[in-house]
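Kindly go through the entry underneath: sequence plus fold tokens. Please state briefly how this chain folds according to its tokens.
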Amino acid sequence: MEQWAKRDGCNERPTTKKRGAGLTVTRWKGCAKAIDVQLWTIHGWGHEWPRAGSVKEPGVIDATKVALDFFDAHRRG
């Protein structure tokens, strides 16, 4: 993600916030062309897609909804 953020002209230092039990969101700001780079990490999970019905812990996200919300907020003109 750091290389992706660098290619998109983002600030080198991201901000990191905890969003519930075991969930961390890392964001790179100041990117070129209003680009938004984010990394959502669910601690203790491997490389699997958390989705409705498969969420193992309370407060863990439905990744499909998060992705669709992100795309809705970043439509190309």
